[in-house]
Write a structure and sequence with these properties.
about 325 residues, mainly alpha, 16 helices
């Protein structure tokens, strides 16, 4: 386990731009105190004794501190690691445990979670979000599973996606506890962002958006667009300006093009809240389109062109979340 965690800690630290040598050293020493009589007699001192043993043996403070911080957060409301090395080690240690138990077919079932994997998953998410560590969780899971395979363990092809889904679902309980609605969480969950920090930023933005007066109408419009596009065989992928005849559809096409140039740079910088606030201004033109334009026109070319326009409209919002999930039918 120590070799697996060390390998994963190095990979994580390099992705995050954190000094990797101390992360690797801390991981290799992390479980040494479990072999001592002191921890054997007093198990609650695991990590704490490791800290003092490491200092006694001349290890750097960063390594010693990480050894005791690897178990944080230990319980709900507990602090996350204070140091970068400790945060990396804690994430690597928890991911290795979660992945390993999924590999041997021991995930939590119902109310049973004998190995406290839900707590470990939530702890991992808290560390990444509260410490602003922009880790690609899906990739880290793949790296963890690869370490098991390198040690001769057979890993099912679906295990990685199962672990990833399991961990993202921990966000649901977190946000419900903070008063964020299921609809807001689900809007982001539909996209399954691979970076928990990015996931959290999107949830915060959608939460703010959901409180705007325009949000309900735009969510309903997105739901309507989603249903239409799912039912129809859309062939045109680019809007043909020459096929736009109604004033309302021309207005929508212009608004989509203009808004794309405004919000794309914002979304690239993860300024999701500001971007969604800009998109909220589209409500009048979207309402006018549905009031005045028949999407399912008799002319196939016109119909396909209007479907392409709706697809472009929906794509604007999907850069943050599936806003249609906010519509309560």
């Amino acid at each position: 386990k120590s070799r697996r965690v060390a390998e994963l800690a190095v990979a994580i630290s390099r992705e995050l731009g954190i000094e990797s040598d101390s992360c690797e050293r801390a991981a290799l020493l992390a479980k040494c105190d479990l072999l001592t009589n002191m921890v054997g007699e007093f198990p609650e001192l695991q990590g704490t004794m490791g800290y003092y043993y490491a200092l006694h043996d001349g290890e750097p403070e960063s390594v010693a501190l990480a050894i005791t911080e690897q178990y944080q957060p230990r319980f709900s409301g507990d602090a996350v690691p204070s140091s970068e090395t400790g945060a990396v080690l804690a994430v690597a240690e928890k991911l290795d445990t979660i992945c390993g138990l999924f590999v041997i077919g021991q995930p939590p079932t119902g109310s049973k979670d004998p190995f406290a994997l839900r707590r470990a998953a939530l702890g991992t998410l808290r560390i990444l979000v509260e410490k602003s560590l922009d880790l690609n969780l899906a990739q880290a899971i793949k790296q963890s599973l690869a370490s098991y395979e390198a040690q001769g363990v057979s890993v099912d092809a679906e295990t990685g996606s199962q672990v990833f889904e399991f961990m993202l679902e921990r966000f649901r309980a977190w946000y419900l506890g903070e008063g964020v609605s299921t609809e807001v969480f689900q809007a982001v969950m539909e996209l399954k962002p691979e970076r928990p920090l990015d996931f959290a930023m999107r949830v915060n933005a959608v939460q703010r958006f959901s409180q705007l007066p325009e949000s309900a109408a735009l969510a309903a419009a997105n739901k309507r667009v989603s249903n239409i596009l799912q039912k129809e065989n859309q062939q045109h992928t680019v809007v043909d300006q020459a096929l736009l005849s109604e004033a309302a559809e021309k207005d929508l096409a212009n608004a989509v093009a203009e808004m794309r140039s405004v919000v794309d740079p914002l979304f690239e910088k993860r300024e999701y809240t500001q971007g969604l606030e800009k998109l909220a201004a589209m409500r009048p033109v979207v309402d006018a389109f549905f009031d005045q334009v028949l999407v399912m026109a008799d002319d196939d070319a016109v119909r396909q062109n209007r479907l392409a326009l709706l697809s472009e409209l929906r794509a604007l919002f999907l850069k943050v979340a599936d806003i249609s999930s906010l519509h309560r039918s």
